[in-house]
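Following up on my earlier thread - several people asked me to post the actual chain instead of describing it. Fair enough. Here it is, all 177 residues.
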Amino acid sequence: METRTQSAGWDLAPLGLSNVLVNSLPDTLLTEDAPDDYTVEAIFSRRPAPDEISELLSPATHSYFERAGYPHAEVAVADRRLRIGHTTLEQLRGGLADVLATRLAEITREIRQRHEASAERLRASTERDSERAAAVTALAESVTFTARRTDHAEVPTARRSEDAQITDWEEEGGRSR
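Reply from S.P.:
Thanks for posting it. Predicted structure:
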């Protein structure tokens, strides 16, 4: 059963291969003139995303093939087809198909994790920005412009304090300008 989910616009259904494209195989297969190796085309289970293609064509995939015992295998992507070069149907049946399927599953998992982490960072950043905006709004709303009833002779508090200091200073023998 295949599960499809959507996250941040990215299709998270596992990328896989459905079948070999028979009409792409050499006409001489199973004859004396059959090539030692050739290119086999397989159909993707869905259209691969650009980041999946990049990962699939990366040196990491070639290293993966080498470690699995298929150092000459090469891959290329053509629309919804994976071109598997320097191989045979026998090699694919003997294990290379499983290696490819496993690599594709790893790529899907890695990219899904990157997309989820990115979505979480965006969500957290948006939440912080929203909380900050709410705090700024609350602070701005707490500012009031209310006229207070004062005597005309009364000086606002900050000015009165300064004047009081000058008066105190003058009374102590200081001189104002």
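The chain has a mean pLDDT of 85. That should answer part of your original question.
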